[in-house]
Amino acid sequence: MSWQHIRGHEALVSEFAHAFRRGRLAHAYLFTGPAGVGKRLFAVELAKTLLCERAATSDPWQACDGCASCKLVAAGNHPDLAIAGRPEDANELPIQVVRDLCQTLALKSAFGRGKVAILDDADDLNEAAANSFLKTLEEPPPQSHLILVGTSAQAQLPTILSRCQLIAFRPLPDAVVRDLLRAQDVAEGTLLERVVKLANGSPGQALALADPELWDFRGALIQAIARPPLDSVALSQQWMQFIEKAGKESVNQRRRASLTLQLLLDFLHDTLRVGVGAGPRSAEADELPLLRELAGRGDPDGMLDVIERVLEAEVQVNRYVQLVLAIEALCDALGRGLQTGTAR
Ligand SMILES: [Zn+2]
Q1: Which residues crowd ion ligand 1, with CB under 5 Å?
Q2: Which pLDDT tens digit goes with each residue over 111-162?
Q3: CA of 141 to the centre of ligand 1 (A)
Q4: Which of 34, 64, 272, 303 could link 54 by a cystine bridge, Cβ 3.0 to 4.6 Å?
Q5: What mean pLDDT value characterizes the chain?
Q6: What local confidence, expressed as pLDDT, does residue 226 receive?
Q7: What is the per-residue pLDDT for 56?
């Protein structure tokens, strides 16, 4: 039963089941694939299976979900499962996080079923942190499993790649994303369909986008940028107010800022499409006049500059530049770029 809630990765589940039953699981894995596609969920489920106390019964591959071990894994505090990632206020994974994780992995198993360590944000390993992994990767403690969770193999140093078994997670089919959204009580309708289209096969992304307030803000944002004159000061104030409504935690504000930028990018890409006579990818029919108005104002090169500027803001938002600075600078650039056709 326990693997059944891992949706859309059935082939990987059976691959792992096969290796597990033959005692052939690797000591170190690198999971790659788009954010929000279920890699971390899969890693935790694997840890649960490995640590389950009743797993020796009929089918050891299925964790029982009832023993103390399974419950501790589900609650996130099993002593034999260590999960670490990039601290909220850091640009990279500090070497100390990796050292602590390796030390924990080397400790004696509290429940006697081995140890599992999961490292999130593995894309952000710097060279020193990656190097501090090498000893553990080369001589893994007995009965230990290490799972690195990143997005792409290209982000990893060759020293890590050559010592981990690479597992690529693919985007999920839209139908699966739609089902998962319904299971999370996202109502049927335009919002659900738009979100499925935009999420590119990532249920995590789809769920984050399925926030009606986000779409209300998007409406105001595209009105502001498509209809001159653009008041960049007012826009950045309105934008920051919306971002701050996500709560005091910086991580929530950054997540919301990033979602607004994705919606803006999507709208700008639709503008380019409309500008060359194609249909929009995700905008609704009633937004066509706005798209045409914006497309008619500048040349495609200018629009590409604006898009590049939004991409830069996205990097800044994810790289801990002060949010207000990133948004103000972007609004300035939008004000300049969308009036004159160039962002610089
Ligand atoms: Zn169990």
Answers
A1: 52, 54, 63-64, 67, 70
A2: 999 999 999 999 999 889 999 989 899 999 989 999 999 999 998 889 899 9
A3: 23
A4: 64
A5: 91
A6: 87
A7: 57
What's the CA-to-centroid distance between 78 and ligand 1, angstroms?
12
80 alpha carbon – ligand 1 mean position (Å): 14
Q: Rounded CA gap, 159 and 41, in Å?
A: 26
Strand partners, 239: none
Q: 108 CA to middle of ligand 1, Å?
A: 20
Domain residue spans in the chain?
2-168, 211-340
Q: Omega before 229 cis (within 30°)?
A: yes
Topology at the third CATH level for domain 2-168: Rossmann fold (3.40.50)
CA of 16 to the centre of ligand 1 (A): 18
Q: Which two tokens stand for residue 132?
A: 């501090």
Q: What's the predicted TM-score (pTM) here?
A: 0.86
pLDDT at 257: 97
- Span from the CA of 59 to the centroid of ligand 1 (angstroms): 12
Ligand 1 centroid to residue 74 C-alpha, Å: 10
56 Cα: distance to centroid of ligand 1 (angstroms): 10
CB-based contacts of 249: which residues, under 8 Å, 6+ apart?
A: none
Distance 196 CA to ligand 1 centre (A): 34
Q: Flag residues of the chain having pLDDT under 70.
A: 1, 55-58, 340-344
Tell me the CA–centroid distance for residue 227 and ligand 1, in Å. Answer: 59
Rg (the chain; Cα; Å):
23
C-alpha distances in angstroms, 323 versus 52, 233, 241, 309, 313?
A: 43, 15, 11, 15, 9
Quote the CA–CA distance of 322 and 326 in Å, as a whole number: 6
Q: What is the pLDDT of residue 343?
A: 42
Quick check: do 2-168 and 211-340 share a fold?
A: no
Select the CATH number that applies to the domain covering 211-340 from these four: 3.30.420.10, 3.40.1190.20, 1.20.272.10, 2.20.140.10.
1.20.272.10
